[in-house]
Specification:
723 residues, alpha/beta, Rossmann fold, three-stranded mixed beta sheet, 27 helices, 18 strands, 46% helix, 13% strand
């Protein structure tokens, strides 16, 4: 109806008991499509059929999955800028790995007995020359060692070594030696296979921090100076550096630093053209890349996956890309199969030559390093590793505009449970450096978390845990713009991640020092305890004061019970349990499901509840609710707090004694001897108490000493109000 009639129609319906919705298409000052859509929406949600496909035909819009739960009208996603206004919206996402000059004391003595496994004889000689004993073996040998030095030649050998050492319970600090794993100076030759050992080695350091010594990359040519520097590093192992390169010029240590783009001009702008191959092209990340390439005007997209056009969502993606103007070829091709990949590339039409490759294929697997089976090592790495190697070899003679490899932050800082994945991505970073050394284009991007897809697509639990740790999900449009800028600026390797360092750093460095991130200012402040804004909760001073007051009025046993309940309450909240009943007081936190992330959350909650500054290793050092409550009791009752608590306890006991005296004085049958004994004890107690007060002691002591029993009880009657 006309707006004037809407209220009348509504009243008419109500008068006959009908519930209807009355809407219109026009209102004063609102005659456009927005008003029309709002009215259609009102009708639609009340059950009227609306053909929305007709409305959106030709607009490029596509259906998306809605949540399965009712809308709560709360926003959980940050407001972000769209592409074209990237600039400083994402400068904080860019990082790179650099090497800094390290400090060691050359010719420092090395002591103890060291197990040297599968290394060149020069290593054992250097250990002996530094003053230590070296037991050389091709295999692991039981014994009590100051450290273990090994040079695994492959991932299989590295994992087997870990298992063998674990089986005979040799947990001395383990150092892996590599050659060619890192390019730390001009002219360094990189071997991607060696770099894989650094990827998985960092994961060992996260999963077994007390066992891990570190990674040391040696120069291609050994010299006596190399041996002295190596043993100096081993002798200084207590300093915490665990990613080290030894070169003739000295020792270098690995650091992650910011790599802001601001102020830098493009070196060779990338304008997608001809044919571009995207491996993993129907997956979450690959599909985002394909949409961007099509929107940028590429003529032909070749999207590979194992299922080709039968992959989930392929048909819809194909229609969308064609509407953007690109011709699309879905190829069922396993990029780990070199012959199949060669056939695919040979079929690229001459009129639309291959100009770029984006290698986004990969498989994420999750298991701790001691549980990795040989089949997982192969299956978890072949798509990324073999695929990248084959693409490199088969396109080496082509004049490509871009050769982009999608790596992961797991290869940069490690990721517990992702040893195979970290190793595979470390290979990509090293391959990019190797291609550059051969004069070929290459850009490897180590990604953090992606929203709307990625390697963790379908694993919301893992993605959610990473986000709680501080690895925040990036909007795909912005992430892809960073990819383009990285190619424009001729980057070889770049880390792209949206990190909440205030949250990530304390968790990452919970069990041992992590020098890798110490040059990032926010991380450094968090590690020093200067910036707690990233923690889940701040200190509730009122609640902490109430807790202290309550504890002051309880016995030790009662205090322990209260604090055990406090730990269980907050522990249950962290784990998402409805009640703390499942957290039995003497069951280990590890068995209850706590990990480094939930341990940190519990620490933050207890800090807020108690006003204390508890260590990040809280749950690991005090492994049960009972043990943790005992720690809290000790911390809350130390120093000034203990004196206050004791004073409050004395007041409480005096209150009880007063009540007992009131009853005693009022009792008619109290005998004389009992009255005398009570009076004497009161005089003694008052005398000792007054002796601590120089001003009050003389007068009080004299008067009490000279008082008779009847005078003492008269005093009690008067002071306690007994008539």
């Amino acid at each position: 109806p006309h707006p004037v009639l809407m209220s009348a129609v509504q009243e008419t319906a109500e008068s006959v008991g009908r519930e209807v919705v009355v809407t219109g298409t026009l209102r004063r000052g609102e005659g456009g499509s927005e008003r029309l859509l709002l009215s259609l929406g009102e009708a639609y949600v009340h059950g009227v059929g609306v053909d929305w496909q007709e409305w959106f035909a030709g607009s490029g819009a596509r259906p998306v999955e809605l949540p399965t739960y009712a809308f709560q009208h709360r926003h959980y996603w940050p407001e972000v800028s769209l592409p074209g206004a990237v600039g400083r919206a994402v400068d904080d996402w860019r990082y790179r790995v650099v090497w800094r000059r390290g400090t060691v004391v050359e010719d420092a003595p090395l002591s103890g007995r060291w197990l040297v496994i599968s290394t060149d004889e020069e290593v054992a000689e250097a250990v002996r020359a530094a003053g230590a004993e070296a037991e050389v073996s091709a295999d692991v040998v039981p014994g009590d060692y100051a450290g273990v030095i090994a040079s695994p030649r492959s991932l299989d050998e590295a994992v087997a070594l870990l298992r063998d050492l674990d089986a005979i319970d040799v947990k001395a600090p383990l150092w892996w030696l590599t050659t060619g794993a890192a390019a730390v100076a001009a002219g360094d030759e990189v071997r991607p296979e060696a770099a894989q050992l650094w990827g998985i080695g960092q994961v060992v350091g996260l999963e077994h921090p007390g066992w891990w010594g570190g990674l040391i990359d040696l120069p291609a040519h050994w010299s006596p100076h190399t041996g002295r520097l190596l043993t100096a590093v081993l002798a200084a192992s207590g300093g915490g550096e665990d990613q080290i390169a030894v070169r003739e010029s000295g020792v270098l240590v690995r650091r992650l630093v910011r790599a802001a783009l601001t102020g830098r001009d493009p070196v060779r702008p990338w304008k997608p053209r001809g044919t571009v191959v995207v491996t993993g092209g129907t997956g979450g990340v690959g599909a985002h890349v394909a949409r961007w390439l099509a929107a940028e005007g590429v003529e032909h997209l070749v999207l590979t996956s194992r299922r080709g056009d039968q992959a989930p969502g392929a048909a819809e993606l194909g229609r969308e890309l064609q509407e953007l103007g690109a011709r699309v070829t879905f190829a069922a091709c396993d990029v780990a199969d070199r012959d199949a990949l060669a056939t695919l590339l040979a079929a690229v039409p001459e009129e639309q030559p291959l100009t770029a490759v984006v290698h986004a294929a990969g498989v994420a697997t999750f298991s701790d390093v001691l549980s990795i089976e040989p089949a997982e090592l192969t299956g978890g790495t072949e798509a990324k590793v073999a695929g990248a190697r084959h693409l490199d070899e088969l396109t080496a003679g082509l004049d490509l505009d871009a050769f982009v490899l999608f790596s992961s932050g797991a290869a940069v800082w490690g990721s517990a449970g992702n040893g195979t994945y970290a190793a595979a991505n470390a290979f990509l970073d090293a391959l990019a450096q190797q291609r550059r050394a051969r004069g070929l284009p290459a850009t490897s991007l180590a990604w953090g978390g992606w929203a709307g897809g990625g390697m963790l697509q379908g694993s919301e639990a893992v993605a959610g845990q990473l986000e709680r740790m501080g690895v925040q999900r990036m909007q795909p449009e912005l992430a892809i713009e960073v990819m383009r800028e990285a190619v424009d600026h001729d980057e070889t390797t770049l880390v792209v991640t949206d990190m909440d360092w205030r949250r990530f750093a304390p968790i990452y460095a919970m069990s041992r020092r992590r020098p890798l991130i110490e040059e990032i200012s926010e991380a450094a402040r968090a590690l020093r305890g200067e910036d707690r804004a990233g923690e889940a909760t701040g200190t509730d001073e009122t609640a902490a004061a109430r807790l202290r007051d309550r504890l002051g009025r309880l016995t030790d046993i009662e205090r322990q019970d209260v604090l055990v309940d406090l730990v269980r309450e907050h522990g249950a909240a962290v784990l998402g349990h409805a009640t703390p009943d499942t957290l039995t007081p003497d069951r280990p936190f590890k068995d209850l499901g706590f990990d480094s992330l939930t341990a940190t959350e519990l620490r933050n909650r207890l800090n807020a509840a108690t006003g204390l500054r508890l260590p990040a290793t809280l749950v690991f050092d005090h492994p049960t609710p009972t043990a943790l409550a005992t720690l809290l009791r000790g911390e809350l009752l130390t120093g000034t707090a203990e004196g206050v608590m004791d004073a409050m306890r004395v007041q409480q006991e005096l209150d009880r004694m007063e009540q007992a005296l009131l009853r005693a004085v009022s009792a008619p049958d109290m005998d004389t001897d009992t009255r005398s004994d009570i009076a004497r004890r009161l005089r003694d107690l008052a005398g000792r108490l007054s002796a601590t007060d120089a001003e009050a002691a003389p007068a009080t002591t004299d008067s009490l000493d000279s008082a008779t029993d009847d005078e003492i009880f008269d005093l009690i009657d008067r002071d306690l109000g007994v008539s």
